[in-house]
Design a protein that fits this description.
Chain A: Keywords: Cell membrane, Membrane, Transmembrane, Transmembrane helix. The complex is a heterodimer of chains A (331) and B (337). Chain A has 331 residues and is mainly alpha-helical. Helices cover 73% and strands 2% of the residues of chain A. Chain A has one domain: ABC transporter involved in vitamin B12 uptake, BtuC. In chain A, α2 packs parallel to α7, α2 packs antiparallel against α10 and α11 packs parallel to α13. The longest helix of chain A is centred in the last third of the chain and has 27 residues. Chain A is globular and about 55 Å long. A two-stranded antiparallel sheet of chain B has the order 1-2. The chains are: A mainly alpha (331), B mainly alpha (337).
């Protein structure tokens, strides 16, 4: 049933040092370090306090958006509506601020609509067992369309960034407060993922959903929860994004689409050999944010960066598949 | 599910015609211009673009894979076409170049998915991203319309073949060929067998990898043919041209599959016709363009949900209990079938 990566039994541990496994498992960390060192060497301003602060802030917003997605892909399903829900979040905030509502109300409404779309996905995919990819393409289209309709097809700028802006722009030394909050969130997620049955069930569902159901686990309810979580977190990221950009952007989703899948799937390589996990996603997000900033400093065009990103995604997936290949059926 | 699947085909055709008539009647009553000959021509032209992309996707869906790259591939095809025409290579070379690019991208997808065994969704998202990135190289992302008027590409939209508008004729011809392959030859059976049960297809001597490869290649090539018609009607090639193909194509294939029980060429054409009839109607009523995605996605969700066997089974359980006699007779019928 896995929509993204076909399930495989992990290879039994062998004695000795397996260079290929080691490379896949820790390669992403080395890549991140290498990229940061290379960019700082070529453009010393990359390592300046202001730039690091900027990278961490961008990465934090993406990290919030991709947490739910990480677990959905880990559970063997897919969600391609997350970026449109985030775009809808920015537009709801912008639309309400424009009509004079306060930030607390605006963000609450945005998060509520994130929850609505998350639950809609959950209802259709988890409870009614409809095909996840096509359904989330459709719900994503719906969210994007509503986002565009709020602004009549254009973006909505606003001036006050309210309490969200205060949180967003607060710093402890050079680390944004938002990054600290995200680290706390991911720490909590790590505990949930690796130390609770909730986390074990997620990975078990990817391996064999029927077996999980037979074992008495309410798999549908679990998956519903994951989609709901993804919707809410995407909308929260949208609220921060709106404050960061001081506007609502109906078409901002497109740029987060490949980023999200790249971060989750590349991150899945790290530590767990192809199974998406929260630490991997965090590293993936940092990698992409560094790439964005470094590419801007080096003067790459958007299309060059897009090509690098897509190449990174396909290389990562190929690496995962090829290291796990020996256990795959030869069809 | 059983009873639905056993319905004779003419009942399904009747259902489709009734649905189409209802849509047409509603829009005709709202905007009198809807059934005018001019508008029908416009509707069918719009349908030609969507239909070609959806036809290609049908092959991929039949082998039970997903292709998310064709919008990006189509953009690359559009820019290739624009660049070839702007460089005075002529319309023929332009169209051939665009379709060749689509075919090449489709082959890359097919090789990645079937021979390198990469997961289809992620691999095609990545190749689609690559294609969009590459499409910027022709003109740094600006749209190309140089030489378009002189070269005669615009005639592709206005010419008439066999009494039909050229785009409609191209769609009809392509659909006929696709139907011949998919429903009138052993290749078609092999496509369906590959999708239905890959393992047993392998043991039946079908080269499943080659068929998956072929499905992706057809999808790539047809999406570029579709974009050629779109470029011909809009008069310019730009890098976002393909992005409007993704959802309507999926909606058409799934709507058709829902109406006719399985993805097939006539089903896709029927699905496209319904989608185009609706979208054209809303355009005529001056509904702003940004609502069209909402309409398409709502139709898509409703189509998938309404015709899903699990959902109809669940709905049956919701019905009030019948008398024991009726229940016995239905269960008897079920046993017999």
């Amino acid at each position: 049933m896995s929509a993204v990566l076909s399930s495989t039994a992990s290879r039994p541990p062998r004695g000795g040092f397996d260079a290929r496994r080691f490379l896949v498992r820790y390669g992403l960390f080395f890549l991140l370090v290498a990229l940061v060192v290379a960019f700082s060497w070529m453009r010393p301003s990359f390592a300046s306090a202001a730039n690091i602060n900027d990278i961490l802030r961008t990465a934090s917003i993406s990290a919030i958006m991709f947490l739910g997605l990480t677990w959905i892909i880990a559970a063997g399903e897919i969600d391609v509506s997350f970026m449109s829900v985030a775009a809808l979040g920015t537009m709801i905030v912008a639309g309400l601020i424009q009509t004079g509502a306060g930030w607390p109300l605006a963000s609450a409404v945005a998060v509520f609509f994130g929850l609505v779309f998350g639950c809609l996905n959950g209802l259709l995919v988890a409870v009614m067992r409809l095909p996840a990819l096509v359904i989330t393409i459709a719900t994503g289209g719906l969210a994007g369309s509503i986002a565009a309709a709020i602004g009549k097809g254009t973006s909505i700028p606003f001036n006050s960034v309210g309490f969200v802006g205060i949180v967003l722009n607060a710093n402890v030394d050079i680390v944004p407060v938002l990054a600290i909050l995200v680290i706390a969130l991911y720490g909590l997620a790590l505990v949930l993922q690796d130390r609770t049955t909730f986390g074990h069930y997620i990975y078990a569902m990817e391996q064999n959903r029927e077996a999980v159901v037979e074992a008495g686990v309410p798999a549908s309810r679990l998956l519903f929860l994951l989609y709901g979580l993804s919707g809410v977190l995407s909308a929260v990221a949208g609220v921060f994004l709106a404050a960061d950009l001081s506007s609502g952007q109906p078409y901002i989703g497109a740029s987060y689409f490949i980023d999200g899948l790249t971060a989750v799937l590349l991150g899945g390589m790290a530590l767990k050999m192809g199974k998406p996990n929260v630490i991997g996603t965090l590293v993936g997000v940092l990698l992409l944010a560094s790439l964005l900033s470094g590419a801007a400093l080096l003067g790459w065009t958007d299309s060059q960066r897009q090509i690098v990103r897509a190449a990174l995604l396909i290389t990562g997936v190929a690496l995962v598949v090829w290291t796990r290949r020996k256990t795959r059926a030869q069809l | 599910m059983k009873t639905l699947a056993k319905n004779p085909i003419y009942l399904r055709i009747l259902a489709f015609v009734v649905l189409l008539a209802v849509v047409a009647a509603i829009f005709q009553s709202l905007t009198p211009a809807y059934l005018s000959s001019n508008n029908i021509h416009a509707l069918l032209r719009h349908m030609a673009v969507q239909g070609l992309a959806a036809l290609g996707l049908t092959f991929v869906i039949v082998v039970r894979q997903f292709d998310l790259s064709f919008p990006g591939v189509a953009s690359l095809g559009a820019m290739t076409l624009g660049w070839l025409i702007a460089s005075n290579f002529g319309v023929g070379a332009g169209i051939a170049g665009a379709v060749a690019v689509g075919l090449a991208c489709g082959l890359v997808n097919g090789i990645a998915v079937s021979y390198l065994r990469l997961p289809d969704i992620v691999a095609t998202i990545a190749t689609g991203g690559l294609a969009i990135g590459l499409s910027y190289f022709y003109s740094n992302g600006t749209s190309i319309s140089k030489n378009f008027f002189k070269s005669g590409i615009l005639d592709l939209n206005d010419a008439k073949y066999f009494g039909l508008d050229a785009p409609v004729a191209i769609l009809a011809l392509t659909a006929a060929i696709a139907a011949l392959i998919l429903h009138g030859s052993r290749f078609g059976r092999a496509f369906y067998a590959t999708g239905e049960n890959r393992v047993s297809a392998v043991y039946s001597g079908i080269r499943v990898k080659a068929y998956v490869l072929a499905a992706f290649a057809i999808c790539g090539a047809l999406s570029c043919l579709a974009i050629t018609l779109l470029v011909a009607s809009s008069g310019a090639a730009n890098v976002t041209a393909g992005s409007q193909l993704l959802m309507p194509a999926y909606a058409a294939v799934y709507l058709g599959a829902a109406l006719f029980g399985a993805a097939s060429v006539p089903a896709t054409i029927a699905g496209t016709l319904l989608m185009s009839a609706m979208l054209n109607g809303f355009t005529l009523m001056a509904v702003p363009y940004f609502y069209s995605d909402a309409i398409v996605s709502t139709v898509l969700i409703v189509a998938i949900a309404a015709f899903d066997p699990k959902v109809s089974a669940a709905l049956k359980r919701l019905r009030p209990a019948r008398s024991p006699k009726a229940l016995a007779s239905t269960s008897l019928r079920e046993v017999r079938s």
